[in-house]
Each structure stands twice: as C-alpha cells, then as structure tokens.
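User: structure tokens for this one?
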Amino acid sequence: MLKVNVIGIGPGNPNLLTGEARQAIAESTILAGDKRMVGQFGSGKKVCPTIKLAELAEVAANADAEKDVLGILVSGDVGFFSLAKTIAGKLPQCEVKRYCGISSLVYFASRLQMSWDDAKIISMHGRQQNLVSAVLQYKKVFSLTGGDNSPQELCRQLCEQGLGKVTVHVGSNLSYPDEKIVTGTAEEIAEGNFPSLSVMMILNEKAGGPLRQGVHGLDDSLFLRGKAPMTKQEIRAVSISKLQPRPDDIIYDIGAGTGSCSVELALQAPLGKLYAFEMKEDALELLRLNKERFHCDNMEIVAGEASEEIDKTPAPDCVFIGGSSGNMAKMLDSLYARNAACRIVINVIALETLCTVVDYYKEKPDYDLDVVNIASAYNKKLGRYNLMMAQNPIYIITAVKKRKQDKRDGLKCGKA
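Assistant:
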C-alpha cells in the first residue's frame, strides 16, 4: 500500500515548517502540489506540479508502493480550508497521513499582535458566504479572499452597506520577502489594489444587534411593510422550526411577499443561499428594501412565476411556500423534479388549498405529512381594557421524504 503524506507547509516560508512536516517532505520520493510549492521543496525528488484530484490519483496509481512515498503539499494547515479535505478518502489503496502546518489565520494574527480565538472565521475564496452579515454581528472577522472577491471588492461591499468606517487589516504574500500588511478603513481599502489571494481581519466595535444567527421569529416591526402580505412573527417562528434549515442549505422562499421569511431564512443559512421567488411588482420592491435593511448578501430575488424559474437556480435543500398562485401541484412537481428529498413547509389559509395539498400527498406514499393549525390573537387597547383580536387560522404543513427503514428497527430486545 502506497504511503501518502499530506503536508501543510504553512504560509510558504520554509522557516515556518513544523519539524514533522520537514521530516515528511524529506522521506517523500515524489512531491505533488502547486507549482510554487514543489519548486521550493522538490530538489532531488520526482516533482508533479498539480493540485487536481484526478491527476493526484493518477500519480498515486503509477507510484511504486514498495519504493515510493508520495508527498502532497498544501498551503497553510491541513485542517483549515485546505485541499486536504478534498483529497480525504479519494486515494484508494493508499495509507494517507496528514501533517499540520501554520494556518494563514494563526500567522496573520501573530503579525498583527492580536488573539484570534474570538474571531468569526469565513472564506470568500471560491465561496459565497455572507461577509456583511458576519461583520454586523461579530466584532472581529477573519476572511480569506480570492477570485472576484478581492480585498478591495469586499470592502466596496462593506461600504455599500454602511460599514465604510470599520477597521480592516489586509495581508498579502504572507511570510514571503514581499509580504505586505496594510491597515485602513473599509473606505480606504476599497480604493486600494491588492492581490486577490489575500487575507483580511475586520474589526467592528459596533457589531451586534437583533440579527443573531440561530434565533428566528424577529419582531414584525423590524420589517418594512406595504400592501404585500407578510407572514407574522409567531407563524414564521413555527414554520422555520418545522423547516429546520442548516447553515449551508440552498433554500427557496416561494411567494416571498415582503420578504420576512426570506430574511429570516437567509440569516439562518449564512453559508448557504436563499432564493426569494415573487411575481408581484409591489412585493418585489419591498423584498429588495428588506434585503438591504437586513444586509442579506446571500439572498437572491427571482422575479416571476416560481415553477417557471426554479430550473434556473441550484436544486434546493429545503423550501418554504407562502403562496402558489393556485398552482400548488405543478409547483410541488417542479420542486421534487429538482430534489426529491427536499424538505418542504407550506403555509395555507384557504381550506381549498389545504385539500389540494393533502390530496397531492395521498399520491406520494414516500413522504410523511404533518399538519399543524395555529390560531393566534393580538391584544388591542380599548380604553383601560385589552381586547384580543383574532387572526386568520394558519395551517403549517410539513412534508418530509421517509427514510428507508433499517431491518433492525423492527427488532425488540427481550429481558436478559
């Protein structure tokens, strides 16, 4: 079995290699990795300048398991947004061992003479995380940058959301002779020119407020409202609990209205993406305004009939339906065509729509259907008395694909 060393080389300067990493490189007869990395450490070895998984697998397959040791060099630490995660389990018939390195976060915090254990860590390199939301919520945010998300572009986005005065440290070419660390406000950094592959530490002393991840059921008064319908706070809280979105989910909000559910779901999935489908012009404008109000960079507004537009978006992990314009069966068929296992929560007022949904799932035995009816009332002051004003009852319907039953589920244990 071929031995494979996956070696974190730290920021890049050979002086920052750990002792174990140095030994792992020394025993490797073949070195693979980024061209710059293997150029630094590949003297006297067979060098394969690649980070493509298919090519790495081919190198491993062609190596002599009796004589060779394959070393795969990765930047930073093997457990921090690393190529090592992609490699894991993808090299069959190999004995893979990881060797840690100094991450860019640890190195950069050291150069800034600050702690990093209280930092919110995100990556904008090849990802679409919500940087603005993170800066609003956390006093210290560390971010990797890359691709179109250069430091100057990310700081422009911060400025657009009223965060131009936050302090930003940018580190480029860390640990190399041309290392550069620049400190300024987001406004100042936005006017600069930095390598796309950099890191940022963003400090916002005014961070905090109502947009806490993990908390749903924001007060109705926080949203801009118009004539478009809005799902009330109590109904949102229960509906989102039933939907159970995960931080990295792709989520649809169909019939988004003012966007109260869209906003809450986007905040629940800071590593994912929320697609808000709406066809009414007045609601679309409110959606846009509430998206900006809550700084939901991970929300995309889709104008038009949802069943005709969803093929243009990534397949959903979960879906909230607040309105279907009378096309519920067609809508559900379209959703399940994209992902048969997506979790769906539907809010219904009309009994006709309730019957349509129940009848639809009668033909879907692979799904469990849960229906909850909520009747709420709000107090209204009348003189020195409070009168309770009833609201329309809401049916909250949850549809979840059944899991295949394990044969052991039916076994019962007897007494010893």
